[in-house]
Amino acid sequence: MLRSFPALASNKMQALQSLPRKSIILALSIVTILIVLFRFYGDVPVDYYRNYAPAEAIAPVVTNNDKPQPGYFKAQPEWDWQVPDYSNGWQGYARKPRNRDVLVLTASDGGGHNSAIPNVLERVLDDREKYCQKHGYTNLWLNTSRYDIGEAHRTWSKIPAVAEAFYLYPSAEWVWLIDTDIILMTPEYDLVNEVVGPDAIKRGIMRDTPILDGQLKKNPTYINTPKNPRVEDIDILITQDHQSVNTGSTFFRRSAFTRYLLETMTDYSMLMGKEHTGAEQDAIKHLMLEHQLVRNHVGIYPQRKFNAYAQGGNNMGYRDGDLLVHFAGCWVGGKCQEWFEEFWGKKGHKDVWRPEGQ
Ligand SMILES: *[C@@H]1O[C@H](CO)[C@@H](O)[C@H](O)[C@H]1NC(C)=O
């Protein structure tokens, strides 16, 4: 047996050497052609197979918008929404999401101030559906009146909706929470390249800018956003008006930090059950003013990036080309319906309508 080994080996060598060169060349050519063909014609992006999230939604998503939750909101399964390993530390990650993993969330029961506008919920949902189809984003409406949030003000119930959105869509990477009193004015606007992608964040968020708690002149906080934010850390994207952050249009990224922030914001004895006129908006503002760690994870964009108001100067008021218009505070002068219809008629407009300096 032992002695036959060398013999066997040399036999093999001979066999290899005697293989005709032609067939080797032919085999190599075929492999090369296949590689080239696959690269150019079977062009399935690598991203397609990348495991983006702990679980892809395979079964169609079922919402329970027509029935109340069985008990206190925090005890519901959606608060156990999962995050993948790469986003479970506070150092985070940076990458461009797939468009389908950007979720546009309307958290509303159609009531409140907005009910002054006829069929407002149906109209904006239909419009957002078209926007999402155009870009491949995911559109979702969650009925906020089904959450049992105790005695807290109803606007807090937007936060359980964010948790439920992450839970219902396990691959959703960014959830964009937008109020019902918002009209998307520029349907071409690309959220990944303009807002949530790492390059956009790097380019766009405001460094060393004061975090407001009322008007800056009257009540300076002396607390600023980081001078050198790390794009990997940014999990929340928000804007400020002249007084404070505004949660009417806010982006949340699936990460352990975001989950903990949502849980903390809705802590009943520390924040949610307390008297806060600005509800969930005051909660995030308070946490930003109080905690360096929270400031590191919240990126503040200039207001008009994704939260222009119907009225205001160049920092605040809608101008041609802005993504959207938000009718924040329209009920004060009873103007909701009038303003809404005016802007609705100008949706997607290309003419010169609200130019700079007006
Ligand atoms: C929202 O939920 C509430 C409570 O579950 C329900 O009474 C109401 O009909 C729902 N609204 C819509 C528009 O489905």
Automatic annotation (TrEMBL):
Transmembrane segments: 23-41
Cellular compartments per GO CC: Golgi membrane
Gene Ontology molecular function: glycosyltransferase activity
Matching Gene3D superfamilies: Spore Coat Polysaccharide Biosynthesis Protein SpsA, Chain A (3.90.550.10)
GO biological process: protein N-linked glycosylation
Classification via InterPro entries: Glyco_trans_34, Nucleotide-diphossugar_trans
Pfam families: Glyco_transf_34
Key words, A-Z: Glycosyltransferase, Membrane, Transferase, Transmembrane, Transmembrane helix
Family named by the database record: Belongs to the glycosyltransferase 34 family.
Protein name (Swiss-Prot/TrEMBL): Glycosyltransferase family 34 protein
Taxonomic placement: Eukaryota, Fungi, Dikarya, Ascomycota, Pezizomycotina
